[in-house]
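Customer escalation, tier 2.

The customer says the design service returned an amino acid string that "doesn't look like it belongs to this structure." They asked us to rerun it and document both sides in this ticket. The original structure tokens are below, unchanged.
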């Protein structure tokens, strides 16, 4: 009897440790595929293949159907027994023609995009490896549906559906990056993220306030960084990658290294990237207005205007950047996992190029204008549970701390006083997100969020001759911003063809600020805001069959006033100054959209999305008075007083369309086109074009894919924005734009032809490169202060082990 008991104990223990490994491969190349989504609906299960293309599917042994999905591959469905008969090997077929992809950004949980009413675009690691974007801002532009504005090379401000800056939200591994000092002017925080350490990127279009709260009006950009991978056997799992890259237009050198070490219950991954960018050279054929004929140099204690040797080189624009990431994961069993992540990014000083091309009375306005190092650090601790209870099937809680540091340093031409302003933000956040299947058809997602931002701002004036430093006005008051929210999202399937998705969120926020009155005659020393916002969404998704997708969605978004809105004092443009306004309330957006997608005979896909967004109580910059005065002296100049106010109504509507064709023998053709039009109401009741509603833009790709070779010949196009179609605030920025036949600023149309190639020398080595802007066009993307690269030769080498 004792021997029988021992036998059963050993048998039970061996079953508990049983792991059935499955391998997923590309059917054409035979290469293993990482990050393939494996899922089942009954029971609800989810897994991902690791860097070796393997996954443990033992929990799926009772699943009715097992789905295999990956962007760029045809969805496959199998049973456990069928997989067993195929020796637990699944082969996926490459295709661009699919309505199936798994996304996370819409609900923070893995879900098929076909079950969601809003439009979401994904950018895979393979696309990054192939396209070789220099920064995370350039990574977003790969989608063909996000415009990027740049005021300097160390920049990149996304524009989505007519909105930008603090009306878009950035999320990193489920943690909001937006802080209380995200401004309405162009921001460059996205460059703190490392594309090499990014596992996948998703762009969710339209309001995302149900899940993400304030700021998610025009869209949400979700970045998911590399995750530690566990060993699926008793052997230590080691996987790594090293890359080097050079680009000719700015003499870029980038080096990257990451390594994953995993055991059965503990895993870690380390990532390091260093990039050095020289001054950026523009193209040869285009408007002469963009040429850099002269620059400022200081010697003999005097600023001098010096002719540039190469007028196509934009001097000064070079800078360097370091990114570090370290993650640890502990998985005591299949139901629980604890993760810790550390991110650190810093730049050198980098010049704001558009401020170096402004002139006053025929002379450069600035002797110096640069940003100090942009530093971002994040600690992110999260715990997830997959053990079903009465309250949830899955639970994730996140505790995150972020530290942001940025500074501005400017000095007028031949002035010895340099103004220094330094901002530091400590951002704490706690998130609790849960999902529960009430029935097979009815699922809810709900959660809580708490955010606290503490803002410290300092200002000094520095005599660059004597070195004397004295206190000066800060950019912001010393302040804190708090947000507390709860949300509920539900999904119900009326039938296999028709489903509903909708939800509600309540958000309470408060702001407290202490103002310095030593430098400006503010009529108040403190200010506080307390308010709340309710947002909701409702959408329908209809799939008549696997080749059709029709969706309709109605949603609201909001943005609560932050420290930048209520407390900033800053020279927004020559001759005007923005002052604090503590009397603000949230702005709201109402968005409606309709999307249709159709696949014809597994070789042609067409999709079209139309949308309309109305923004009410819009927080905009308008003329103001301070103690009854409409002008004050700021940095020695008499300036018109302005303030952020709930003073406008705006709308934007547009179309997003795409086509994908798969030809025989590995050839493919695809294209995307985006059109938006927006207007904003002025004080006198007149309307002006919405500043961030960019021109029509499109992209077209001719691709070829073989076992070891990938080839892409593509064109990018941006339409013209004439002077009369520029926003009122843009018409005065002649230094940003070319001049039309009447001498007025306008944004010319432009195009580029580009070629990219990737060749896999072996399982371990690959080489990628190409030529961007083959015809060496000279152009500036809309609203940008720096011209884009001219002809740019890119070459990179990657080894994986």
């Amino acid at each position: 009897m004792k021997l029988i008991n021992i036998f059963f104990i050993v048998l039970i223990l061996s079953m508990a440790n049983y792991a059935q490994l499955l391998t997923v491969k590309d059917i054409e190349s035979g290469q293993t595929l990482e990050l393939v989504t494996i899922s089942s609906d009954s029971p609800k299960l989810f897994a991902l293949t690791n860097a070796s293309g393997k996954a443990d599917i033992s929990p799926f042994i009772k699943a009715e159907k097992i789905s295999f999905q990956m962007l760029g591959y045809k969805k496959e469905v199998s049973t456990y027994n069928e997989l067993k008969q195929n020796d637990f090997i699944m082969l996926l077929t490459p295709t661009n023609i699919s309505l199936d992809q798994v996304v996370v950004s819409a609900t923070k949980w893995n879900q098929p995009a076909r079950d969601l009413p809003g439009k979401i675009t994904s950018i895979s690691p393979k696309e990054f490896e192939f396209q070789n974007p220099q920064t995370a801002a350039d990574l977003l532009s790969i989608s063909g549906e996000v415009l990027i504005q740049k005021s300097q090379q160390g920049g990149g401000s996304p524009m989505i559906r007519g909105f930008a800056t603090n009306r878009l939200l950035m999320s990193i591994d489920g943690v909001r990056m937006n802080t209380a000092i995200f401004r309405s002017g162009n921001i460059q925080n996205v460059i703190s993220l490392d594309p090499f350490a990014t596992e996948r990127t998703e762009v969710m279009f339209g309001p995302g306030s149900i899940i993400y709260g304030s700021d998610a009006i025009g869209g949400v950009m979700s970045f998911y960084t590399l995750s530690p991978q566990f060993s699926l056997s008793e052997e230590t799992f080691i996987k790594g990658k090293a890359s080097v890259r050079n680009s000719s237009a700015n003499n870029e050198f980038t080096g990257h290294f990451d390594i994953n070490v995993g055991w059965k219950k503990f895993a870690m991954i380390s990532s390091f990237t260093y990039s050095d960018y020289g001054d950026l050279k523009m193209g040869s054929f285009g408007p002469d207005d963009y040429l850099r004929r002269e620059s400022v140099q200081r010697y003999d204690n005097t600023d001098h205007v010096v002719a540039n040797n190469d007028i196509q080189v934009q001097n000064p624009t070079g800078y360097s950047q370091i990114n570090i990431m370290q993650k640890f994961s502990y998985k005591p069993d299949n139901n629980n996992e604890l993760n810790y992540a550390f991110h650190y990014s810093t730049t050198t000083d980098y010049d704001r190029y558009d401020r170096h091309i402004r002139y006053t009375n025929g002379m450069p306005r600035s002797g110096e204008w640069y940003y100090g190092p942009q530093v971002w650090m994040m600690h992110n601790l999260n715990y997830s549970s997959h053990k079903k209870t009465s309250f949830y099937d899955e639970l994730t809680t996140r505790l995150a701390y972020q530290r942001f540091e940025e500074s501005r340093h400017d000095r007028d031409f031949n002035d010895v006083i340099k103004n220094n302003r330094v901002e530091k933000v400590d951002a704490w956040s706690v998130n609790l997100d849960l999902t529960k299947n009430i029935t097979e058809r009815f699922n809810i997602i709900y959660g809580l969020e708490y955010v606290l931002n503490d803002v410290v701002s300092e200002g000094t004036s520095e005599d660059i001759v004597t070195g004397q430093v004295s206190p000066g006005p800060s950019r912001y008051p010393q302040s804190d911003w708090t947000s507390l929210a709860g949300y509920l999202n539900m999904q119900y399937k009326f039938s296999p063809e028709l489903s509903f998705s909708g939800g509600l969120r309540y958000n309470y926020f408060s702001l407290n600020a202490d103002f310095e009155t030593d430098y400006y005659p503010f009529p108040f020393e403190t200010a506080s805001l307390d308010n709340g916002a309710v947002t909701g969404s409702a959408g329908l998704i209809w799939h008549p069959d696997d080749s059709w997708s029709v969706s309709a969605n109605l949603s609201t978004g909001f943005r609560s006033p932050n420290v930048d809105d209520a407390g900033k004092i800053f020279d927004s443009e020559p001759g005007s100054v923005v002052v604090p306004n503590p009397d603000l309330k949230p702005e709201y957006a109402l968005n409606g959209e309709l999307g249709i997608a159709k696949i014809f005979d597994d070789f042609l896909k067409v999709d079209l999305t139309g949308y309309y967004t109305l923004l009410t109580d819009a927080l905009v910059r308008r003329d103001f008075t301070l103690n009854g005065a409409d002008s004050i002296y700021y940095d020695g100049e008499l300036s018109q007083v302005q303030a952020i106010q709930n003073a406008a109504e705006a709308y934007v509507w547009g179309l997003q369309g795409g086509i994908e064709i798969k030809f025989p023998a590995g050839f493919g053709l695809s294209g995307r086109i985006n059109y938006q039009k927006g207007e904003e109401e002025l004080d006198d009741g007149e309307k002006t074009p919405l500043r961030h509603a960019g021109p029509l833009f499109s992209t077209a790709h001719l691709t070829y894919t073989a076992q070891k070779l990938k080839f892409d010949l593509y064109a990018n196009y941006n339409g013209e924005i004439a002077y009369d179609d520029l926003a009122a605030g843009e018409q005065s920025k002649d230094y940003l734009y070319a001049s039309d036949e009447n001498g007025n600023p306008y944004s010319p149309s432009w195009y580029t032809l580009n070629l990219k190639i990737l060749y896999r020398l072996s399982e371990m080595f690959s080489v990628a490169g190409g030529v961007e802007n083959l015809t060496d066009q000279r152009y500036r993307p809309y609203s940008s202060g720096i011209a884009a690269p001219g002809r740019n030769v890119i070459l990179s080498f990657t080894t994986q082990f």
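Tier 2 assessment: The sequence is consistent with the input. The longest strand covers residues 637-662. Confidence is low (pLDDT under 50) at residues 6-17. Sent an explanation to the customer and offered a walkthrough call.
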